[in-house]
Design a protein that fits this description.
This protein is α+β, with helices and mostly antiparallel strands and 120 residues long. It has one domain. It is built from 3 helices and 6 strands, in the order αββαββββα. It has a 6-stranded antiparallel sheet with strand order 1-2-6-5-4-3, covered by helices on one side. A hairpin with a 2-residue loop joins strand 4 and strand 5. The longest helix has 14 residues. The radius of gyration is 14 Å and the shape is globular.
Length: 120
């Protein structure tokens, strides 16, 4: 089972996110610093389980005009690149290849509120 009843990560998924090799996204270092993991470099079963958890228990937010499903855990925000269910570009969890994360105060919506969005 991937989750607890309250939507928090189950212990094995907490262990997965803590032990995964998160890569700093160098391309976005100046504008949108964050880290990511790649499915083919991690345990694929746990990776897909985390993708499903994000999609099921996350909340819809925005990155500029793009809808994204975000999930908060331990001061960080996790997301994948797939749009929410019902969006024409949606695809199943098994096809996801990247999971991203950043500190809660580094999300688009947090930076929009703080007036710290980068120049596009």
């Amino acid at each position: 089972m991937s989750t607890q009843e309250d939507g928090e990560l189950a212990a094995h998924l907490v262990e997965f996110v803590e032990s995964a090799v998160w890569v700093f996204a160098v391309t976005y270092a100046e504008t949108w610093p964050h880290h990511y993991i790649v499915k083919d470099r991690e345990d694929e079963t746990l990776f897909i389980e985390l993708v499903r958890h994000i999609r099921r228990y996350g909340y819809e937010g925005r990155f500029y005009n793009t809808p994204i499903t975000y999930f908060d855990h331990d001061g960080k925000v996790y997301w994948t690149m797939v749009p929410p269910v019902g969006h024409p570009a949606w695809y199943p969890p098994e096809e996801e290849t990247i999971i991203n994360r950043c500190p809660k105060d580094a999300t688009y919506e947090s930076r929009l509120r703080a007036g710290t969005l980068p120049d596009r």
